[in-house]
Each structure stands twice: as C-alpha cells, then as structure tokens.
Known about the structure:
alpha/beta
Amino acid sequence: MAEALRVGIAGLGTVGASVGRVLRDKAVELTRQCGRDVIVTAVSARDHKRDRGVDLSSAKWFDDPVKMAQTAEIDVFVELIGGDEGPARSSVKTALEAGRHVVTANKALLAKHGVALAEIAEKKGVLLNYEAAVAGGIPVIKTMREAMAGNSVTRVFGILNGTCNYILTRMEAEGISFDACLKDAQRLGYAEADPTFDIEGHDTAHKLSILTSLAFGTRIAANDIYMEGISNITQADIRAAADLGYRIKLLGVAQRTESGIEQRVHPTMVPTASVIAQVHGVTNAVAIETDILGELLLSGPGAGGNATASAVIGDIADIAKSRPGFQHGPVFGRPAKELKPYKKAQMRSHAGGYFIRLTVHDRIGVFAAIAKRMADNDISLESIVQHAVNGEAAAQKTVILVTHETTEAAVRKAVDGITKDGHLTDKPQVIRIERAG
Ligand SMILES: NC(=O)c1ccc[n+]([C@@H]2O[C@H](COP(=O)([O-])OP(=O)(O)OC[C@H]3O[C@@H](n4cnc5c(N)ncnc54)[C@H](OP(=O)(O)O)[C@@H]3O)[C@@H](O)[C@H]2O)c1
C-alpha cells in the first residue's frame, strides 16, 4: 500500500473538530477508498486545553498555524480558521509555497486572494481544494470544474446562505416579522451575534464570486457585486408575493449578458412552483444553466460541522487518490494566469420583471399618476392592484405593480418620479423577479 497521507488541521472549531472526528471514525473506510491511510499528524488552534470532543492527542500540536504549514510532517494543510487575512492567509500561502497541498473551507479568503493563491498552487504543482467554501456540503465546485467540462455556462444562481433562507422561510410559514425570525435564528445558532455579514448579502457575494469565476473563466471580482440584503423584507412583501404566485429568496445570480457579466445578490421573487422555491430553511441550492446540459439544480446542507466536513474530507480524499507526478487540474477550471478580466455588466442595464410595492395617500389621481410614470418609462405592466392598508377607512393604500420585462434603469426612473410626485407615505419597495424552472 502507498504511504499514508499525513494531514495537518489548522482550526479545530465547528468544522475542524468535525473533520478530525470523521477522519478517525471513518479511517478504515477511507483507507479502502483512497488506497492508503489518511492520518492526522498535526493540529493547530488557539487554545490547547479546550476539549474538542475528539481525541487528537496523537497529532503534534502547533500554536502557530504558519509553523505547521512549514513542517515536513504533513502532506496536506487543511485551513479551517476563517478570515480573509491574518493566520488563515499567511498559513495557506506558506503551505503552498512549501509545496504542500491545501484544503480550505474559507470563502472569504478565496474571494479576496483566491487567484493569487491559485497561481502559487499551480506553479508548485500542488492542489488547492475548496469544495466546502461554497454551499457547504453540496459538491458544486467539483460539479462545475470537473463534471461539466465542455459546457458553456449561461447563468448560475443559488440560495447560498442558510441564515437568510431560514429567516425568509419562517417569515412566510408563520407570518412573523424579520426581527423576530432573526432573534430565533441567533438563539438556535444559525445566525451570528453580528448577523450583518449574512443578512446584508456579503457571505452570499463571497460564494457567488467563486462560482462566477468557475462559470465564466474570469478573475474573481468579489468587490464588484451588486448587493442588497433581506433586512427590508416585510410581511407585506411576503404576502403580496404569495398572492401573485411567488416566493421571496435571497439569491446570488451570475449571468452572462451582452454587455458583460452580471453579478448580483438581492431578495428575489421566484415562482412558487419552481424547484428553487421549494428549498426551505437552512438548506442551500445552486442552479447551473449550460448550453449542453440544460439546467441542473443541486440542493442540500450548506453549513454545519458534519456537512462541511463531508466536503473537506472529499477534498482530502482526492489528494490521497492523486498519483505522484500527475499534473493536477487548475484551481478555478482554467490556469489562474489565463483567467480573463471580469467585465462587469452595469446593474442599470439588468433586464427582467419587477415587483413594486408602493404605500400611497388615498386620494383621487394617485393611481393614474403611477400608471403614467410607468408608461413614460416604457414599462409595460402585467398587473396593478390597489388595496387598503389597515382596513377600508385608512388614509393610505397599497399599490402593487408587477412589470413585464424591463430594465433596472427604467424602473428606478419611474419610482424616483413617483416619489417626487409626493404620493408616497412610505419608502417604495422594489423586488426583482427571476425566471426559474
Ligand atoms: N461553520 C460552518 O458551518 C461552515 C460552513 C462552511 C464553511 N465554513 C468555513 O470554515 C471555516 C471555519 O469555520 P468554523 O465555523 O469551524 O469556525 P470556528 O468554529 O470559529 O473555528 C475557528 C477555529 O480556528 C482557530 N483559530 C483562530 N485563530 C487561530 C490562530 N491564530 N491560530 C490557530 N488557530 C486559530 C480557533 O481556535 P480556538 O478553538 O482555540 O479558539 C478555532 O478552533 C471558516 O472559513 C468558515 O467560513 C464554516
């Protein structure tokens, strides 16, 4: 049998401890599958004394993950610390430069430094595997990079953040407010104490930027993503969406258009009957549309110790199975140096259907004024309905418009016009509608 693959795990938190546990519990099975033993020979975390729920005492302890990345006692450096700078970045860079394979679950690091790290890995002839960095346990990276060779992707979109999907699912199912759902998500450990990163779309954007690079062969451009979170979504939106046959999801969408690539993260209305609309709770899903395959939808657990460990261990097993001297495939599907610059499509040129919810004074002429603003901007309406707020006697009305395909620029101009007309009593709500099968 070939020599054992020696693994060093940096970070023994939710994911790292699960990886350590599964590597021990499934050692016999992994040896059978990989044709060699896979053993943890080194570990690093901050607190040496903390009980990790798994006995890793046979592995050498390192206070400093960079030192562990340099040691000749490991073949694979597994980075499960997190963060786009600091010890995660320096240890991964060190490991690659020292000719060690790297496995990471760190989307923030890849979104910022992925291309530079890929260049080092490719120069050194080692693997940089990151299946767990996007959609946790769902094998979307391998699917896009390996199983879809020859396909040209036209659009990739998905539910990439379990916290947001959990909140939106409960808002719809139980009729409770965003704030109440967020508090529950925090209590159950689905949301961080500071939830901004999740609910304002940053986490989804990081993952999307990696998928965009794989889909379109472009350099990662995580800072060039149009982003709106879910904190402004109200029960009124959820109910109106349901009445119209839609469900609201926070989607990350990357799409090839005539003017470039659109990368956008925002609350989106998808038809209730579509497959992606059936993805509930903390589950993630990724839809990939290509010229040869058509549409593929992958869904499953997007986070959690075991689900994420499953993807990390799949990456480690790929390294264990790789043959010495065999040329590894490029990290982002094309050699990092050949990734094209990202050509951004302006959000103003985005074309699609829109849901617009306006709260207006209940007075004569308002309805006609709104319709005129729409017509002036060449926006054709699929429906326009008006109903009272808080009972028929109220001085306010809600007007809900659904447009046929139009542009973002036209919608913004029309809504700005309506706002200037002075008919609104509250901030207008605009939610994009996404075609989904
Ligand atoms: N949790 C998930 O469901 C999930 C899903 C997908 C991807 N990920 C990614 O996986 C990575 C790890 O996430 P996690 O949830 O497991 O994080 P976590 O529970 O916070 O664990 C982080 C670990 O890193 C260690 N650490 C921090 N600074 C260190 C340093 N300077 N030197 C050595 N070790 C250090 C910590 O040590 P101590 O324990 O001693 O403090 C801890 O064990 C992140 O990149 C995250 O984005 C997580």
